[in-house]
């Protein structure tokens, strides 16, 4: 089985080399690493061109900043693996957890796997209370519309059989991607599993980007892709 790892990247000069090294060190034997730089302006592009490009399979550059969802669509379009996973370019999620995320798919039980920061007993950095509250509210509203019982709809770690991704017409350019893809996968009626993962959250001082405006966009995306389509 070949795994495609899609890494959307925007202004991650401090972490991009470290996350690539960690992804390369995962125990998954056959893998394809795809980085999509979303018009970074902090020196990330220089690192990609001079240090990182020889270490990965594809580096794709957006000419303008379009958002995480747009970067993922670009990466998905070139992925050739049997299975595709989303990996953020920061250090909040540990690539050493790929094997347990892949297990429900390899066992033939799942077509899609969500890695939950709120399920299981893995290490979890204590950071922002209101982020957790907002996440739980958005997950609850998404579940009410999809009739899924996820605990972490907003998680980065989403894993798909590639043929499932190929059935989806994705539209959201920014952080509305998470509720959009959840709604559209739910409508396919494919088997979805959830696996507990660790979480090493960073602070805004350390480079965290998501904010309250993204929460409102996520709320709109829940309504749009579940009730208005």
From TrEMBL:
Q: What are the alphabetically sorted keywords of the record?
A: Transferase
InterPro entries in UniProt: Glyco_trans_2-like, Glycosyltransferase_2, Nucleotide-diphossugar_trans
Does Transferase appear among the keywords? yes
Cite the Glycosyltransferase 2-like domain residue spans from the record.
Answer: 4-167
The superkingdom of the source organism is Bacteria
A GO molecular function held by the record: transferase activity
- PANTHER family to which the protein is assigned, alphabetical: RFBJ PROTEIN, UNDECAPRENYL-PHOSPHATE 4-DEOXY-4-FORMAMIDO-L-ARABINOSE TRANSFERASE-RELATED
Q: What is this protein called?
A: Glycosyl transferase family 2
Which species is this record about?
Answer: Opitutus terrae (strain DSM 11246 / JCM 15787 / PB90-1)
């Amino acid at each position: 089985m070949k795994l495609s790892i899609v890494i959307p990247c925007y202004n991650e000069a401090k972490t991009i080399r470290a996350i690539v090294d960690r992804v390369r060190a995962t125990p998954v034997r056959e893998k394809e690493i795809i980085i999509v730089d979303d018009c970074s302006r902090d020196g990330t592009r220089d690192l990609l061109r001079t240090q990182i490009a020889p270490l990965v399979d594809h580096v794709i550059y957006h000419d303008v900043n379009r958002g995480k969802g747009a970067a993922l669509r670009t990466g998905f379009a070139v992925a050739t693996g049997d299975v595709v996973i989303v990996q953020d370019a920061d250090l909040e999620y540990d690539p050493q957890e790929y094997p347990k995320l892949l297990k429900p798919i390899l066992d033939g039980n799942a077509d899609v796997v969500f890695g939950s920061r709120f399920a299981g007993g893995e290490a979890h950095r204590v950071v922002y209370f209101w982020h957790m509250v907002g996440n739980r509210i958005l997950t609850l509203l998404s579940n009410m519309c999809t009739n899924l019982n996820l605990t972490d709809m907003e998680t980065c770690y989403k894993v798909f059989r590639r043929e499932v991704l190929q059935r989806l017409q994705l539209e959201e350019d920014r952080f509305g991607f998470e509720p959009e893809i959840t709604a559209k996968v739910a409508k396919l009626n494919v088997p979805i599993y959830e696996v507990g993962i660790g979480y090493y959250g960073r602070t805004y001082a350390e480079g965290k980007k998501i904010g309250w405006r993204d929460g409102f966009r996520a709320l709109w995306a829940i309504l749009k892709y579940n009730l208005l389509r």
